[in-house]
Design goal:
Length: 89
Amino acid sequence: MTKAPFPVPGNEYRTRRGDRVVIHEVRDFNNAGARSTFPVKGTVYWRGRARKKSFQIWTLDGRASVLRQHPHDIIEITPLRRQGEAANP
């Protein structure tokens, strides 16, 4: 079985807390040229709070913290919506 590539910029995912995540970019190296521990950058849209969002960074396996579980860990690796798809009416 082939695993879907994660993360893909523009795709939407779900966090441990149930919030929606949109991935903006994946950068393996920082501006200084060193390998990045948290190369995935995106926005978390808080569930149940209109227009409430926060910027977040993750590891390549979707962890928001390397030391413990975090509410913003990405647990649904299959994208909710792929880039270019219309939202559900």
